[in-house]
Amino acid sequence: MVRYRVLLVEDDPVIAKSVKLNLELEGWECVHAANLAEAKVAEAGGPLSLVILDLGLPDGSGLSFLKELREKNSRLPVIILTAQTDEASVVTGLESGANDYVKKPFSLKELVARVRVVMREPALRENQVRFGPLLILKESRTATVAGVQIELNRREFEILTYLADHAGQVVTRERLLDALNADGEVTDRTIDSHISHIRARFKKADVQHVAITSVYGVGYRLEDKSDVVP
Ligand code: CA
Known about the structure:
- Helix content is about 40%, strand content about 25%.
- By secondary structure, the chain is α/β, with parallel strands linked by helices.
- It folds into two domains: about 5-125, Rossmann fold (3-Layer(aba) Sandwich); about 130-225, Winged helix-like DNA-binding domain superfamily/Winged helix DNA-binding domain (Arc Repressor Mutant, subunit A).
- It has a five-stranded parallel beta sheet with strand order 2-1-3-6-7, with helices on both faces.
- The longest helix has 17 residues, at about 190-205.
- The radius of gyration is 20 Å and the shape is elongated.
- The N and C termini lie far apart (about 55 Å).
- The structure holds calcium ion.
């Protein structure tokens, strides 16, 4: 049996106790840290399988711990626990490299299920596409640029995702048609109009550095222009 070692960073003793108990009932080992300082000690102390990370901690935000992990290239799966109901902290968490998040109040069953999913699928990260300031979350069908959500319809989302999956390459209309055309309703012309809608959405959201460039007679290319000095 795989014995997972989960680091639970949570300052609320009641929540910590019940989460720990439930993880242990699954047969997993749970190391508890009540603040950032303890979390760092625990992380340095031995191999972990996953981190469950509260954001509001007495000595700072869980996000700083997450950022430190990712800065040293740790791919340790992290599930954020957040009481902050605002979308922004969730988006920031996901952009900082969290694999999933659970909003408080949560059911222990749900949390355990999410831990299972994240453990089972290191590929969960593959459901995110990042290109410069653009972040696409395929599961929740959300696209953000530098944290600003871009409103897209289903087709526009699919097109942008495809371009992002092949960022920097010229994607021909034929390839886009092949990729999108399960039901035969997309034509060359509709692709062009979807692209102009995405551009309009980018403009509306004041997106600065990511652009869909037309390559005349061939197709489109998603470009990161953040290195370009105006
Ligand atoms: Ca807290």
